[in-house]
Amino acid sequence: SVSFITVFCPGPTLLLAHVTTRIRLGHPKLPDVCAAACLLGHAAAFFSNSFIVQEDNLLLVFGQMMIVVSWLSSCNGSMDRTGHLKGLIVTLSSVLVPLGLCRLAVVFRGCREEQTWCLPSSFLLHYSTTFSHIGFKLALVRLVLSCTAVLVTPQVVLWVAVRRAGVVDRFVALLLFVTSGCVCGHFCVQSLPLSILDSLYVWQHVVFPRAVLVLVVMTLVYVYYTGLLSTSIKSVSGLYIVAVAVWLVTVLVLGDGLVFAACILLAAAVAVSHLLSFNSNVSTWTKAVVCAVLSGQFFFATGHQCDLPSIRFDAAFVGLHGDQQAFVLAGALVAANMFAAQFIFTLTLPLTTCTRSPGRIADGGRASTDDLSSGGGAGTTEKQTAPAESTPAVSGDAVAAVFFYLFYFKITLIAAAAAATVLRRHLMVWKIFAPRLLYASFVTELVCVLCGIVLLLMPNVLARPVGVLDSESRKTRTL
């Protein structure tokens, strides 16, 4: 009932204003129509047991379609204007990389009982259980590659943040590197033979997972108190850091077998945000739908299905003793395992609304953005002669993107509830429709909480009107 009420508050208002603006301007765009078709098609699929069983393939098709359509809209003849090979390669890679990652993620899917033709991925098993199947040497190589991926992937994302935002705090980079090392240490301990594991003390089983949780909390607290999310310019690097920190927790609870699936998930989120940002030809509504569809597609790509046997309750014991009654923490770990894709795509959603915030020419001819955050107080001398190189900044459209993102999940929740009600006498209601309603309910409320936290951590973005930069960036418009 709460979702039914709130779905008619901000979402349709913003959507109606957006559609009427497009109609008034006389050029409704193809990505907007495709995004609406994806939403309606996904909602209609809840009324068919065949489509619900094939929801992973359905979202894969929708996600690839939205990526291609958004890319075609963003190109707008840019391939012809570049006129050189480098521009052609960059333009093509911006769409081929997300498409390739979506196709590669299919390897890590799980299977449900109704999919009789499906074979579960061997990556769903832990390394300690694969030694007898694939051999010790091959399992050891796979473990080394997994640890390398855990160590390298956060550093690559931070490098992307440096390329886009200009700077990343070195202390945060060090914390994330140590956290990655603790994740690898936990995987190495879990891959030991059972005879050695039984001889270890209890604290040796939980020391690395607890260190990961403590370091992630330290990173989030440091990001909050240093103001990395306080302004629109700093929020770009701050969101990358928060996404990487949360991603490390999801890698920990997903297990050593799904490390590559988690790496593909983070890479796809970064690649999609790079494709959709700085792009005025793709609307905020389309960007939100792309993130929502891909979050659902990568939910299945991390080995999950919308049925009760797919819930991995062993994630509740990562870093905890078996006799402890920490139900809240255990539930949070299970949620991080199940909805890792929703966590990552929700945190990277504001990055899709990045715009260019012009800098200023300071003394010495270098572009200075520090004066923007300091407000240009007394005693600062600068040459305000020409605009400097633009700096990425999260725009006020992030608020609209969050509302559209929630609107998508709430519509799917209403469709799941309506399907379970209409088909309540169906033979498979308790096996297909009722579990899908449970999943839709939980993921919608989880996304609501995550979006609320993201907006509250970015007060300047929350306070700005839609499509308007913050006061710091507005000062440079007179240049």
Topology:
Blueprint: H1 2-6, H2 11-25, H3 30-45, H4 49-53, H5 55-75, H6 78-82, H7 85-104, H8 127-134, H9 136-165, H10 170-190, H11 194-199, H12 202-225, H13 234-254, H14 259-276, H15 284-301, H16 327-338, H17 340-348, E1 354-357, E2 360-361, E3 367-368, H18 370-374, E4 391-394, H19 397-422, H20 429-457, H21 459-463, H22 471-474
Antiparallel strand pairs: 1-4, 2-3
Structure description:
The chain has about 475 residues and is an all-alpha fold. The protein has helices at about 1-5, 10-25, 30-45, 50-55, 55-75, 80, 85-105, 125-135, 135-165, 170-190, 195-200, 200-225, 235-255, 260-275, 285-300, 325-340, 340-350, 370-375, 395-420, 430-455, 460-465, 470-475; strands spanning about 355, 360, 365-370, 390-395. It has a two-stranded antiparallel sheet with strand order 1-4. Strands 2-3 form a two-stranded antiparallel sheet. A hairpin with a 5-residue loop joins strand 2 and strand 3 (about 365-370). Helix 3 runs parallel beside helix 19 (about 395-420) and helix 9 (about 135-165) runs parallel beside helix 14 (about 260-275). The chain is globular, with a radius of gyration of 23 Å. The N and C termini lie far apart (about 50 Å). Mean pLDDT is about 80; it is low at about 1-10, about 20-25, about 360-390 and about 465-479.
Keywords summarizing the entry:
single chain; about 475 residues; mainly alpha; two-stranded antiparallel sheet; disordered C terminus
Write a brief caption for the model.
With 479 residues, this protein is mainly alpha-helical. The protein has 22 helices and 4 strands.
